[in-house]
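Continuing the batch. This is chain 6 of the set; chains 1 through 5 are on the previous pages. Same settings as before, nothing changed between runs. Recording input and output for traceability.
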Amino acid sequence: MLQQLRSRTEQKLGQKISSVGVTVPKLAGLYPRDVADAFLHVGLSEVSTDLLFGEFVNEPTAAFAGYGYGLCQRYTNMLECEDEEEEMRMRRIVAIEFSEKTLAVALIATRTACSAHLESSEVSWDLGWGKRGGEQEVFWGKVTDRIRGVVEGFGRKVDTLVLLGHRAMEERLLEAVRDALERFVVTEGEDIVVQVQNDVDPVFVAARGTAELAKRNQESPWRCIEPDYCRNRGGDWKPPESHEL
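Output for chain 6:
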């Protein structure tokens, strides 16, 4: 599968690919080391998307970044970026992925995309789009209950909704999301308004966020302030000396 994706992407771009940014869903038995080995097997190295720990970014966090949340503008200057991040408000995010096979609900509390980590997540293999069957109302009732149950366990109200997946914009899902989150939003007494940026496709939003985080991680290495230093990734590079005042 990875080799096919690589070949199709190279045909689309008209150039060879040697490295990729990687995001992974939160699935039992899916370990980062195994994912890295799979990419190495097809001749691809991964570009780190995690500025601090060098780990793969999880899919809900990648989608959060893909919608433009939690990203500083002056990211090539770490000090200025940190100042921007200090001004960002804490967000309590529910990320809902809906595909042919699964419904996944994740909860994140963070200011920035670079430091976001999952508070909790749940994947339901019995509630994907392809599992609707004949009793539609029963199915969508279960979807609503599953989303509500995960958010209720969060113990805090949410203020940001992130949608991703091939079936994320199905009207019945959006209705289920509104019903499920009715009691768990920060602004009480108002209907849930599902807003999706017109230029962002929920199918590719996690990939978009992964690419953005990978780019930023390459252009602004940890402890690097000046752009010229950031671009010099040679073996003799050393961070600028610091002086105590």
